[in-house]
Prior knowledge:
Helix content is about 65%, strand content about 5%. It has about 140 residues and is mainly alpha-helical. A hairpin with a 5-residue loop joins strand 1 (about 30) and strand 2 (about 40).
Amino acid sequence: xxxxxxxxxxxxxSVHTIRFYEKIGLLSCPVRTRGGIRSFSDxxxxxxxxxxxxxEVGFELKEIRTLLDxxxxxxxxxxxxxxxxxxxxxxxxxxxxxxxxxxxxxMEQELSALLASCESLPDCSACPALNDFSxxxxx
Length: 139
């Protein structure tokens, strides 16, 4: 059993974040010592790792809750249904990441063009970034 501070340091998340996960029900309230200190089990640590990793790959809290519910109830759910649901969630998240990457690529190209334009001008009087973004090639 570990304290909230120990778990936070080990997992690289803040104590505040752990308390927030408790508050919104992603993490059950851990056992408390006689002194009122939260004491986290290996299972709770594993759950926090799951939440953190799912968040790192782009899942939002609502989606993480769904994934945790599926994981928690896995033995009682039809295997094909779980697989289909998780596959759909993963595919949708992957597709969302691809869309974001395309958008970021377009943003990078636009910024590169603006930078080249800026650097080629003798002064800032005609710079599209300062004068009028609407004259720049839009995304």
